[in-house]
Amino acid sequence: MNTYDAIIVGAGYAGSVAARALAEKGKKVLILEQRPHIGGNAYDERDEYGVLIHTYGPHIFHTSSEKAYRFLTRFTHFNDYHHEVLANVHGTMIPVPFNLNSLAIAFPAEKAARLREKLISQYGMGSRVPILKLRESADPELQELAEYVYENIFLHYTAKQWEQKPEEVDPSVTARVPVVVSEENGYFQDPWQGMPEGGYTEMFEKMLDHENIDVRLGTPAKDVLQFADGKVLVRDDAAGELQDYDGLVIYTGEIDALFDYVHGALPYRSLRFAFEHYEEDSFQEAAVVNYTVSEDYTRISEFKKFADPAGQGTTIVKEYPQKHQKGLIPYYAILNDENRALYQQYKAIADRYPKLYLLGRLAEYQYYNMDAITARALELVEEIG
Ligand code: FAD
Ligand code: UDP
């Protein structure tokens, strides 16, 4: 074990990008991954009908980070898929984020024209206005618009996703889907977006294909690593003897689990995915349809519409949010002051280990898109490697 310069826990974006960057600096790296596959939550695979599905929910790549884009395009080519989402509002399909096209669908022509002018003069063409900010507008008509969007796009979807009102969740969360003063229907505004040709898993396979990287699948960190009194101990197999380890450790799993939940469990939201297959060419109008006023699921994604047309019929997935509990996958950190304070208690324990680095959605207890965690992993390796 001490022949490895670094042991990385987790083979998702955080762990895989860090591993490759360290390997290219000549470091020998071992990755421990508890799942039977690489790629973390971005893992994709072909189902029995040959359709490329995203096992842990729909992942669409988009970025303004040249650093992340350049790095990832060494291992894949992103196609020109442009992500657009529709909301099903009582059977009417409205583009989301709510924009000037949505306005024209949701309101009678004369009113829509007036609201359009008000939005443009108040906020400027091309601006992105978080719903909570639009609700503060002094103009009664803009307030009415804000109430419409709040009620029909945010309130019920957010209740399903978080069991909270939009104003109760961290403002950064709802700000990801602002009201957009534009006629562009895209879900993201980043200059680079697309889906990896051949899929995410293939991209990860290429990233991890390096002589300095070994990957052990089906291996929870605890089988190999122990943390006690500021010292890291390792063993080769479950029966092996513990030895001191003085290399780097990059941990991308749940930080509360790492320290045996001594301060209690960090709260998360989880999801249940229900996959369905249909012997039809098309199930719905867009790759993703959000159910913002009805149903128990938040959205339906239809994989073939992500620009990989292979496979027979069409496969969809419905996302049912649920409370997180032991045995489920923690998908979303619930960001608020209390939970951040609890996180800091775990961080304080981690800080006692000088060569332990926390990286990623779970270890840092924060929201990261794929590009953001890629850029962060590269930065971390520049800092420490
Ligand atoms: P993960 O992908 O969670 O990887 C962590 C890995 O560590 C996992 O493989 C896990 O099994 C392993 N692990 C954990 N603990 C241990 C342990 N003790 N021992 C061994 N292994 C362990 N981002 C976008 O940019 N665009 C999108 O469209 C998008 N859609 C999303 C949709 C959903 C439903 C979700 C939940 C997320 C989405 N994301 C999206 C975010 C994206 O999933 C994350 O940016 C990415 O997964 C973060 O990578 P990570 O390595 O931090 O975490
Ligand atoms: N949201 C909503 N209605 C929508 C889309 C998003 O209320 O039609 C809110 C909801 O609270 C969600 C948040 O905005 O959790 C962020 O949405 P995003 O699509 O970024 O969520 P993710 O893809 O990360 O699940």
Short characterization:
The protein is α/β, with parallel strands linked by helices. It is built from eleven helices and 21 strands.
Overall number of structural domains:
3
CATH structural class of the largest domain: Alpha Beta
Derived from helix and strand composition plus strand pairing, the structural class reads alpha/beta
Instruction: Report mean pLDDT, rounded to a whole number.
Output: 97
CATH architecture of the largest domain: 3-Layer(aba) Sandwich
Explain this structure to me?
This protein has three domains: 6-38 and 208-265 and 334-384, NAD(P)-binding Rossmann-like Domain (Rossmann fold), CATH 3.40.50; 45-84 and 268-332, no CATH class; 96-185, no CATH class. The protein contains eleven helices and 21 strands. The chain has helices spanning 13-23, 66-72, 100-106, 109-123, 131-134, 140-162, 171-174, 200-208, 255-258, 337-350, 370-384; strands at 6-9, 29-32, 44-46, 52-54, 61-63, 85-89, 92-96, 128-129, 179-180, 192-194, 213-216, 225-228, 231-234, 243-244, 248-251, 268-278, 288-291, 299-302, 314-323, 332-333, 356-358. Helix 1 runs parallel beside helix 11, helix 2 crosses helix 11 (370-384) and helix 3 packs antiparallel against helix 4. The two termini are 18 Å apart. The model has no long low-confidence stretch (mean pLDDT 97). The structure holds flavin-adenine dinucleotide (FAD) and uridine-5'-diphosphate. Residues 9-15, 32-35, 40-42, 57, 59-60, 220-221, 252-254, 331, 360-362, 368-371, 373 line the site of flavin-adenine dinucleotide (FAD). Uridine-5'-diphosphate is lined by residues 87, 96, 153-154, 157-158, 161, 169, 173-174, 176-177, 290, 292.
